[in-house]
Amino acid sequence: MTRRNSSLLLIVVLILAVASLFGYTRRYQLRAKLWHWRHGNHLSVGAYEVPVPSMWLVDSSNERYATLVNTSWSSFGPDELRSNATLMVSSLTSATPDLDGWSNTRISMLRPEASQKLVRYSLRTKDEKIECLGGHIVYKDLKLGILSLECRSEGSLSLIFSGPTSQLPELQSFIAEIHKIH
Length: 182
Known about the structure:
The protein folds into 2 domains: 1-39; 41-180, Protein Transport Mog1p, Chain A, CATH 3.40.1000. 32% of the residues lie in helices and 36% in strands. The chain contains 5 helices and 10 strands. The chain has helices at residues 3-25, 27-39, 99-109, 112-115, 168-175, and strands spanning 42-45, 48-51, 56-61, 65-70, 86-91, 119-124, 129-139, 142-153, 157-164, 179-180. A hairpin with a 4-residue loop joins strand 6 and strand 7. The protein starts with a helix and ends with a strand. The model has no long low-confidence stretch (mean pLDDT 81).
């Protein structure tokens, strides 16, 4: 092989190595883009249409359950553990008959010290009220900046979120867009 051919082969191998490394490090973002290209920006879960933000990947789903993962690494606070937000969406077989009763039961199940650090909020979608409860994950007295929330609607919608606290506003805005399929 001539010197020119060896240099050309080396350049091609380096280009392939860089492209492979880029593809590997961005594989989840690429999967998210591919999912959105194939399916659009919404997902049906039971009787609900769930918006899927552009950098979120639908990792697994069926007609009653879906797992969404935020593939963006750009939205972290300074004191947060670098982790991807995950949202599990499910449509229960029956509606939650008493949302306040569900909330009170969940609060009573928490340890007394956990209830003092409780994160609780309500929001309203176009169709129904959603109540969310949870708290910050603490490991050996170290606050990790990770929030875990469980949400229920007046209907059959159930959500479980785990992720950086800084991603809560994005979560709240797209939960508010969930609506029933009529």
